[in-house]
Amino acid sequence: MTTLTLFSPSGSLAQPAQLRRAAKRLAKLSFEVSIDEAALLKDQRFAGDDDTRLAAIHRVAKAVPSVALATRGGYGLSRLMDRIDWKKLGKSVEKGTRWVGMSDFTALQLGLLTHAKATTWSGPVAYDDFGRSDAEGGVDDVTRDCFVEAMDGLLEAVGFRTDAGFDGLGVRGQLWGGNLCMVCSLLGTAHFPKIKGGVLFLEDVAEQPFRVERMLMQLHMAGVLDRQKAIVLGEFSQWRRTEADRGYELKHTIAKLRSLTKTPVLTGLPFGHITTKVSLPVGAKVELLVQGRDAFIAWQHDHAHSH
Asked: Which label site among 43, 128, 147, 264 has the fewest CB atoms less than 10 Å from its CB?
């Protein structure tokens, strides 16, 4: 049986019952589920104070579960980055732990990639993706199946529909990225991965297009975007138009980005703060191929974790 630990490295959980519901659903997927002792703590907006959350991360790393699944994102890992024992986390990956999460969890993933050259998984979080009530739609089939296949070591590719104009594109590189805000927050720090020739994927939530553009401009001016083989945009969800935008939308952000960088900018990746999301191996060597408008990100799968 594959062991899975739920832990809270960032924001607090509003409804404990929702996490317990997630644990039961994950158990039905043949995971041996445990909930970290501090997962439900609250300290202001955080799941416990900084010392508590740091101890939880190190405790999970020491236990070496097959899967370490974040309960949710929010905010909090930025406070811990300089204190995390990256060697300890890296050893857990070497021993087989798959660290999974998204949003604020991007910081930990990029830190592990930088300091331990370790591969982690951008994917669902327990609270929202597995704890959602049936009345709210329950667990998305694609999200669930993709996650299980990834944790079994069987997932080898994801596909999506992208914009016209990239037919025949084929590049290889290291997959990295995640939440755009968190990627930018690490720029210029010791935790930012210096990747050349990579495939950078990005998403965000509740950020208006001009704010998305501003963060992309920061990455561009830092030389990050031109160093990549491709940029793949996921969902930029839950933003509202305002009168000040005067018709400026995300499509204009993308057009501006494409005018600035030589790197191909693809859209349509089913990943982000959305119900249906794929799981992606952060740090893995991947091949990005486009046939017509069908895009594929493929990597070498691993049967070692099958449960």
From this structure: 43
